[in-house]
Amino acid sequence: MVRTIGGRYEIEGRLGEGGMGLVYRVRHCQLAKQFALKVIAPAFANDSSARERFNLEAQIASEISHPNIVSVVDFGEDAEHGAFMVMELVEGEPFAVADGSSPLSVRRALDLLAQVADALDHIHKRGVIHGDIKAENLMLVEEPAANGSRRRRLVRLLDFGLARRLGAQETELNGTPHYLAPERCTGAPASVASDIYAMGVLGYLLLTRSMPFEGNIAQILEAQVREAPPSIAKKRGEEIDESIETLVMRAMSKQPALRHPSAAAFRYELNNVMHMLEMTRRRQSSTSLKLDRKVDAAASLFEQSMLAQIVVRGDNTIRLANSAFGELVEDPGGTHRNRSLLDTPLALWVPDLKRALERVRRKHKPMELRARRWTNELTLWLTPAPVKEDIHILIQNHPIVREPVRKT
After folding, report:
1. 377-391: pLDDT as tens digits
2. Quick one: 239 and 99 in the same domain?
3. Are the CB atoms for 131 and 162 separated by under 8 Å?
4. Domain assignment present for 67
5. Does 331 participate in catalysis according to the annotation?
6. pLDDT per residue over 89-120, tens digit each?
7. Do 269 and 305 fall within a single domain?
8. Which residues lie closer than 8 Å to 364 by C-beta, 6 or more apart?
9. What whole-number distance in Å separates Cα of residue 159 and Cα of residue 21?
10. Full residue range of the structural domain in which residue 204 is found
11. 111, 118, 132, 195: the active-site residue
């Protein structure tokens, strides 16, 4: 006898089960397309809090669409099975065992970690805390190329069972002990910072194939709060660049304020590390090499330009700045107002610029702005950059020449 759920999904077999749910491989009766379908486990079918959690998971997951996150495509109620959600079927390898017991190459580990950071940044920007970032909630799939050849492995985030809205009230401690941030172990609610910590633990695992802390649950929680994790180089058994160790250990700082302020900030630092270690180069076609030459030429012109130029991110902090801009922001006494231009909020430089940036992003059209700074008049041209929400700003400086006062 063929079993169906929701009157339209034919059960073909079981894929697995989690803490409160069962996952089946199903086929849509009309579309003849396969999906993964999750239902509440029988033991929790009459538990109102479990049903509420299940409904929230379905609602949150259905709102999110990203290449590194598995999509929820349907949700409903079944007379026999109760609430169910339908997800795209991901064919791949479980993240935790995909590459055997030996550590990954550093390049591959950082590439996979970068994809997780992208997924986490996406959900955080939508006001969602994941609450359970771990290897077991990730799948590796082969990203197909247009010609059918194999491409890089793509990370897919599978489970939103412990996700919650940012600022939601919590009454219980939940999550996986190995990945719990110190403040979570002592009763603080899940947050962006606790997700960053879990991502740091994931990076540690990818690079060493071992957890920072081991033992029973009580021992692990105690270590999360009080102990420093062994160095990655020591656990890996070989030397590793200090910048990688610094990146992961910062994400795993005991104090939330010392971690990266966002997944985007973590990703930015990771990009810099990979670029510095020359891990971003791949075998390229002649077309892509020509494009690289154009990019290199543009970068050279940007740096050598006599006009001050910067590129700002969506949060209005400086992503790139050339030497001419560095000279421009020196005050009349010759002392540099900002020791580090990168990441500087533009409001510290030209307060009226914020409204102009918002206008350019909203209309996605260039505009001109006049500004005054110290004894200079400035003309700024704001242009949307190729990277979404970035804006390129070119600044022309007009020193104000005052006529000398003549004595009569």
Report:
1. 778 888 887 666 888
2. yes
3. yes
4. yes
5. no
6. 888 887 765 444 567 889 989 999 999 999 99
7. no
8. 384
9. 11
10. 93-276
11. 132
pLDDT bucket at 337, cuts 50 / 70 / 90: very low
List C-alpha distances in Å: 133 to 91, 171, 256, 347.
Answer: 20, 20, 17, 35
CATH of the domain at 23: 3.30.200.20
**Same domain for 64 and 143?**
no
Put simply, whether the predicted model's pTM sits higher than 0.90 gets the answer no
Give the dihedral sign, CA 300/304/309/315.
Answer: positive
One domain for residues 217 and 294: no
What is d(CA 271, CA 269) in angstroms, rounded to the nearest whole number? 5
Q: Is residue 60 situated within a structural domain?
A: yes
Using an 8 Å Cβ cutoff, are 190 and 131 in contact? yes
Nearest to 358 by CA among 385, 379, 389: 389
- List the Cα angle 342/343/347 in 5-degree steps: 110
Distances (CA, A) of 47 to 38, 77, 80: 16, 15, 15
Distance of CA 245 to the CA centre of its chain: 19
149-174 as b/e, with b when 16 or more CB fall inside 10 Å? eeeebbbbbbbbbbbbeeeeeeeeee
